[in-house]
Design brief:
With about 220 residues, the chain is an alpha/beta fold. The protein is built from five helices and six strands; from the N terminus they run βαβαβαβββαα. The chain has a six-stranded mixed beta sheet. The radius of gyration is 17 Å and the shape is globular.
Length: about 220
C-alpha cells in the first residue's frame, strides 16, 4: 500500500477531521499513548467538505487539508471503506454514502448481501472483501503526509456482533473466527506491543503514521 514517510513530527494539538463518532473514538484510542491533544472537527464547528476524490487517499487529503486551513492547526483525516470483490470493489469510496443520510448501515449491509445473493455468491470464497483505510495529515502550511493499508476477509450473513460501527458486524477478517462486530476495540485496532502487524485496516495505516510522525510520551 502507499505511504509517504517524510517524517514531519506531529505534536501538541491535532484536529481529527471527522464527524463520525465511532471513527473519532478509534482515532483517539490510537493516539492515546502520545502527548497529543486531539480535538474533533465537530468540537470546533468545522464544516464537512465535499468528498470529490476518486481514491481513499484523495478524500482523506480533502478532509485533512480543509480542517487544517479552517483551524490553523495540523489535522488528521481517515477515509475508509469496504471493497467487495464480486461487486467490482463496491461500495468502496462510497461506503458511507450507501448508508444514506440517516447512516443506516443495517440497510447498507443488507444491500451488499442482496447484491451478492443475486449474483449467486453464497460460498465464503465468493464473498471475499477487504477494508481499506487511508490516513492523511495536513499542516496549515500545506505540507501533507499520507498512509494507507488494508485487511482482507469475507462477508458473512447475517451480521454478527454489536461492537464497532459501520460494516463491522458482517466483515470476518481472514484467519479469524469472529467479525469486527464481535471484537473489543483493543482486539480490533490495538497496536501489538511486540511491533507485529495490527489487525484492522485503520490500525495498520496508523502503524505507518506512528513510525513516521509520532513519538510516545513516555
Amino acid at each position: 500500500m502507499t505511504r509517504q514517510l517524510s517524517g514531519r513530527p506531529i505534536s501538541g494539538r491535532l484536529v481529527i477531521a471527522t464527524h463520525n463518532a465511532g471513527k473519532l473514538v478509534e482515532m483517539r484510542e490510537l493516539l492515546a499513548p502520545y502527548a497529543i491533544e486531539a480535538v474533533s472537527a465537530g468540537d470546533l464547528g468545522l464544516a464537512e467538505p465535499e468528498e470529490t476524490g476518486s481514491t481513499f487517499i484523495a478524500n482523506a487529503l480533502i478532509k485533512a487539508q480543509a480542517a487544517a486551513e479552517a483551524s490553523g492547526l495540523p489535522a488528521m483525516a481517515d477515509d475508509s471503506g469496504l471493497c467487495v470483490a464480486a461487486l467490482d470493489g463496491d461500495p468502496g469510496i462510497y461506503s458511507a454514502r450507501w448508508a444514506g443520510e440517516s447512516k443506516d448501515f443495517g440497510a447498507a449491509m443488507a444491500r451488499v448481501n442482496d447484491l451478492l445473493t443475486q449474483k449467486g455468491c453464497v460460498r465464503p470464497d465468493q464473498r471475499q472483501a477487504y477494508f481499506v483505510s487511508a490516513l492523511a495529515v495536513a499542516w496549515p502550511d500545506g505540507h501533507t503526509e499520507t498512509f494507507e493499508d488494508r485487511i482482507d476477509g469475507e462477508i458473512v450473513w447475517p451480521p454478527r456482533g454489536e461492537a464497532g460501527f459501520g460494516y463491522d458486524p458482517f466483515f470476518l477478517p481472514e484467519h479469524m473466527t469472529r467479525t469486527f462486530g464481535e471484537m473489543s476495540s483493543q482486539e480490533k485496532h490495538g497496536i501489538p506491543a511486540d511491533g507485529s502487524r495490527a489487525l484492522s485496516h485503520r490500525a495498520r495505516a496508523f502503524q505507518a503514521l506512528m513510525v513516521a510522525c509520532l513519538k510516545t510520551s513516555s
